[in-house]
Structure formats: C-alpha cells, structure tokens
Specification:
Helices cover about 70% and strands about 5% of the residues. A hairpin with an 8-residue loop joins strand 6 and strand 7. Helix 5 packs parallel to helix 6. The longest helix is centred in the middle third of the chain and has 81 residues. About 20% of the residues are buried.
C-alpha cells in the first residue's frame, strides 16, 4: 500500500528480469536475427554460385560450340565449293575436317543443351538445315570423281547457296538466342552478387548495431548501476553511514542494492547503539576514574591518618599497662592486651589492604626477573619460620620471566609462607616448587604436605577476607591468596587450586613466557 492508501503498483514484466535473463534474451534475439540474415546470405551465395556454374559450364560453352559448329559448316562449304570448281582433291581435306569438327560440336551441344527446350529446338533446326544442304549439295559434289571440274556443282550452285544461306540464318538465330541467354545469365549473376553483397553489408551493419546495443545495454543496465552502487558503497565505507544506497538496473542488481541498503541501515543502527554504549562506557570510565582517585585518597588517608591513631592507641595502652600495671587486676590487664592486639591487627590489615590496592597499577614497571634468585631471596626472608617449623623446601630450576620484581616477590612469599604456616601437626613440612614449560607460558606449582584444602573451597580461598580457619589457630588477614591471584592475573596468568586428592595442598599458576628476540 502507498502512503495515500492506494495499492502498490506491481512492477512491469521487464522490471522483474535479471541480468542473466536480459543477456539470454538479447543473445537469443541476436542469434535469431543473425541466423535469418545468414540464411539469406547463404541463399544469395548459392544463387550466385549456381548462376556462375550455369554460365561457366553451360551457356558460355554452348555459345562457343555453336560458333565452332558454324565454323565447321563454313569450312565444309568452302571445301566443297572449291572442289566443285577445280576438281582438286586437296579441297576435300577442309571438308572432312569440318565434318569431324561438326560431329564434335554437335556432340558437345547435345550434352550442354539437354535440358533447354528452346536451345535444343534451335540446334535441331540447324542440324536439319545442315542435313538438307549436305544431302542436296555437299555429299553429291564431294563424291564426284576428281581431276576435272564437277558439273553437278555448277548445276546445283544456286540451290546449294540457298540451302547454306538458310543454314547460316538458322545458326545466326541459334547464336543470337544463346548469346541473349548468356547475357541474361550474366545479368542474373550481377543481381545475385548484388543481393549477396547487400546481405553481407546488412549482416555487418546488424553486427555493428548489435555490438553497439550490447555495449549501450551493458553500460546502462550493468555498468552505471554498479558504478552508482560502488559510489554509494564508497561513501558508506568511508564512514558516511547515513548515505542512502540507491538500487537501479536489472532485478538482481536492484536486489543487491536493496540488500546493501538494508545492511547499511542495520550498521547505522548498530553504530548508533554502539555510540550510545560507548558514551555510557565513557561515563562509567569517568566514574571509575573518579572512584580510583577517591580510593587512592582513601589509601593515602589509611596509610597516614588512620595508622597514627592506631599507633597512639597501642602506645598509650601499653604505657598505661607499664605505669599502672601493679594497680590493675588480671581482668583489666587482659582487656589492655585485647586492645593492643586489636590495634596491631588493624595496623597489619591496613598495610595488607594498601599492598593489595597497589597491585596492577599502570605505573608498575616491568623487567626481567630471575625467579631462581627471587625465590632464594624469599627463602632468606622466611628463614626463621622455615627453621622453626623444620620445613624442607626443594625446587626445580626456575626460569627468567618478565614482570614486577616486588609483586612477584610478594607472590612467592605468600605461597611459601602459607605452605609453612598451614603445616600438618604430625609431620614436618615438605614443600616443592616445580615448573613445566607449555606452549607460550610457564606453569608453576607449589606443593606441600600440610593440612590441605577441601576442593569445595577451591574458589573461595582466592576471595579477599575469606578464611577457612579462625585467627586464633592460624593468624592472618585472609588477603594472602587474593593478593596472589591479583598479582598473577596482572601478569597475564591464571592461578588455581589443584583439586587432585593428595596429602596436602598444591597451588598451580601460570606466567607468560618472554617473546623470543627477533
């Protein structure tokens, strides 16, 4: 339906034709036209060939043999007349040659004029006149004795002349008709060749017109629509997603243009949606930036302003205990111990939170870190607790990685300290640090024979402040493994608890291998 509520007009039959159908129809029409013109041209060529064959093989030879027949008869007449006047036998030789030439010419004319009634009738007339002249004059004179003039030649000279004149008249009529027939054949040949030439010219003109029509049709029906489509697509690919893509040309090209226009609209809609989402993300990023700035301010306050009151609480409480300890009962001294212990634990918690918040900051420098040396340094730091627990720590040869030395030191310190702290009460700790090389990373393991971790808590142990034991049994803030996870992930790796059943715990984590030098 149109905007006015009228039914949408259906496109014409040609509007539904595709490029392939246009090409097929045009090619079929051109071939049909060329076939008709080719048939006419072939007929004209055959016609000209037939006329040429008739002219060369029949009409011209017939006229030539008619002339030879006349020459033969004239030769006979000359020989017979000379023999009759002189009686010399030498004059009979041209006569005999003329008789032989007559037979040859008549035989050839019989073949050439077999299908021509008029020409055959003329030949019969000539032969009849020749036979009459030979019967009344030529044969009697030629058979007379030689040596003296033939009296019969003088007696029948007038009659013989009249018969030969009649013969000459018949031959002239025959040659005239044969000449006219040859002229007609030549005229027919000229007309046939003219028709042939005109047909060939028409074929050439039609081919030129078809080529021009094909060129113009391709230009208007294919090249121009494709050029417009390419120009519109160029505007879109250049970033102008609001540029309308027009559809023109055959049905398939219009369908292509319509599809591209639909795709453009979808892209424009998705781009608008993406732009709105980007703006929302920018706003969220700005909010996060403000939040990070506030968190940094909070960290500064926590590291300076909050620790000072805690130090005062701890210091004055301990001073109170030393100065008035003798006057306090056991319950008061116990309360003072609780206050001091709480202040100390709060200070440790604040320090751990500060360390946790600093992990992964953009200004953390990266360098090549020799993990063998770093673990050795970490073991020196933990030497007192290792010695007190009687722990045995072994390790594989560790590689060099790229990262932050301080953060990786915290990672190893937390993992090894946990392995020592959460030892089994019935056996001395045995800890092993292993490493394996995979495709593009190193996989490290820290395995101990301690109290172990239930697999159901495999995710919980890496969440900040999540503890599986009370602080009285195992002191700490519950930040250690959460800090390890943040350090590993900031270095592009992963960390997890190995759920395979064993006596103790195995923590596994990965770090990227340095890219090989070019």
């Amino acid at each position: 339906m149109t905007a006015a509520g009228q039914p949408t007009p259906r496109p014409g039959i040609f509007a539904r034709w595709t490029t392939r159908r246009w090409l097929r129809t045009g090619a079929a029409a051109a071939l049909a036209l060329l076939a008709v013109l080719g048939g006419i041209g072939l007929w004209a060529m055959n016609r000209a060939s037939d006329i040429t064959d008739d002219l060369v093989s029949t009409r011209s030879p017939a006229l030539s043999n008619s002339i030879r027949l006349e020459a033969a008869l004239v030769g006979q007449e000359t020989g017979v007349r000379g023999y009759g006047i002189t009686g010399d036998p030498a004059f009979l030789e041209p006569y005999r040659l003329g008789v032989d030439a007559e037979e040859t010419a008549v035989g050839r004319l019989d073949e050439l004029l077999a299908g021509n009634r008029q020409a055959r009738a003329d030949l019969d007339t000539v032969l009849a006149r020749a036979e009459e002249w030979q019967r009344t004059f030529a044969l009697p004179v030629s058979r007379a004795p030689s040596g003296a003039p033939v009296a019969l030649a003088s007696q029948r000279a007038a009659e013989g002349k009249a018969d030969f004149d009649a013969l000459r008249k018949a031959m002239t009529a025959q040659q005239s008709r044969l000449g006219d027939a040859r002229v007609d054949a030549v005229a027919s040949l000229d007309r046939a060749e003219d028709v042939r030439d005109r047909v060939f010219v028409a074929i050439a003109v039609v081919i030129a017109l078809l080529a021009a029509a094909v060129f113009e049709g391709l230009r208007r029906g294919v090249n121009e629509p494709l050029a417009r489509l390419a120009a519109d697509a160029g505007h879109v690919t250049a970033g102008d997603f609001h540029h309308h893509i027009s559809a023109s040309g055959p049905a398939d090209l219009r369908a292509l243009g319509t599809g591209m226009e639909s795709m453009r609209r979808r892209l424009a809609d998705e781009l608008a949606t993406s732009e709105r989402q980007r703006q929302a993300l920018d706003e969220q990023a700005a909010d996060l930036l403000r939040s990070n700035e506030e968190l940094e301010q909070f960290a500064y306050i926590a590291s300076h302003d909050l620790q000072e009151p805690l130090r005062k609480i701890s210091s004055f409480t301990q001073l109170l205990q030393r100065r008035y300890g003798a006057e306090l009962d056991d319950r008061a001294r116990q309360y003072i111990d609780f206050a001091v212990d709480g202040a100390n634990r709060m200070q440790i918690l604040i320090n751990d939170l500060l360390a946790f918040s600093r992990i992964g900051r953009a200004d953390d420098g990266e360098e090549s870190v020799d993990l063998d040396a770093l673990v050795e340094k970490t073991l020196d730091t933990l030497s007192i607790s290792v010695e007190q627990s009687g722990a045995t720590i072994t390790r594989d040869e560790l590689p060099t990685v790229t990262g932050n030395t301080t953060q990786l030191g915290l990672l190893w310190q937390n993992l090894l300290a946990n392995a020592v702290k959460f030892r089994h009460p019935d056996r001395a700790p045995e800890i092993h640090v292993g490493v394996t090389e995979e495709e593009a990373l190193w996989r490290f393991t820290v395995t101990d024979n301690g109290i172990g971790i239930d697999p159901q808590y495999a995710e919980r142990v890496f969440v900040i402040f999540q503890r599986l034991h009370t602080k009285d049994r195992y002191p700490g803030t519950g930040i250690g493994l959460a800090m390890c996870k943040k350090i590993v992930e900031s270095h592009g790796g992963t960390i997890a608890l190995d759920p395979a059943p064993r006596d103790g715990t195995r923590i596994t984590f990965t770090l990227p291998r340095p890219a090989p030098a070019a």
